Amino acid sequence: MSVEKSIIKVMSYNVQVGITTDKPHHYVLHSWKHLIPHTFRLTNLDRIADLLHDYDIVGLQEIDAGSIRSNFINLAEFLAERAGFPFWYHQVNRNLGQFAQHASGMLSRYQPDEITDIRLPGIIPGRRAIMARYGEAESALTIFVLHLALSKRARLSQLDYISDFVNDSAHAILMGDLNCVADSDEMALLFKKTRLRPSDVECHTFPSWRPHQPIDHILVTEELDVLDVKALNNAYSDHLPIVMDVALPKGLHLKEVQQKTDAYKVRV
């Protein structure tokens, strides 16, 4: 049985590989957790899964696809299982073998018709975007999940590149840790080249213990109606999750399924 919904709840969350950070010095004291496993990681990820449970589509940044540091557990799969998502997908951005599988991910309560890995330009190779398409033609919705580079030059190049994919989408939601604020040159370029629009609410997401930088974003094309947007207050990562309720246009419905399926195509 399937249920059609015209309002969806989406989240973007940089989970920092399941590491809690609520003080600046934790970057030094907890740095070893980026390299080797620790027992509290899965407990913290369970807490994150509790947050995800109320959302329909979630974009994840800074996960691990299964290596020593995560006890060889794919964190996208782990969070999907714990939060009850029938669809999950991970994208490895930097493959360091058994030592680290740096990745992004997407969890969904709907069946995407197609998922595409987009290789982003950059001086240091490896950055990618996830593009998930739901539906066909003018009734299609495309979700983009990104984690942009730290350098402004690379971000400009990456957003310029992704703009063409956004413009090929009938309706689009772009989310992720973009490492820049809404009034930056990078975002100005994105808004100029696409139908994506800035949010009416500035959500401060970083650092989680004293958020003052709005560098995590959920952006929608102009045909989509934003009902609510905010950052959730917790200390499960060094970022806060950003969430949004989106009303879909008439005729655009996503079908929620009650059981797992692998009925989608992945392209690279």
Structural summary, described in words:
The protein is an alpha+beta fold and 268 residues long. The protein has a single domain, classed as 4-Layer Sandwich (Deoxyribonuclease I, Chain A). Helix content is 19%, strand content 34%. It has helices at 26-29, 40-52, 75-83, 152-167, 185-193; strands at residues 2-5, 7-14, 57-64, 87-95, 101-108, 114-119, 128-134, 141-147, 171-177, 196-197, 216-221, 225-231, 242-247, 254-257, 265-267. The strands form 3 sheets. A 7-stranded mixed β-sheet has the order 10-11-9-8-7-6-15, with no helix packed on it. The longest helix has 16 residues, at 152-167.
Distance between the termini: 31 Å
Count of distinct structural domains: 1
Strand content: 25-35%
- What is the count of helical runs? 5
Could you give me the name of the CATH homologous superfamily?
A: Endonuclease/exonuclease/phosphatase
Give the overall pLDDT as a whole number: 87
State the shape.
globular
Give the topology string: H per helix, E per strand.
Answer: EEHHEHEEEEEHEHEEEEEE
- Which fold name corresponds to the CATH topology? Deoxyribonuclease I, Chain A
Kindly report the spatial arrangement of strands forming the biggest sheet: 10-11-9-8-7-6-15
- Going by CATH, the architecture would be 4-Layer Sandwich
Largest sheet: 7 strands, mixed
Helix content class: 10-25%
What's the gyration radius in Å?
Answer: 17 Å
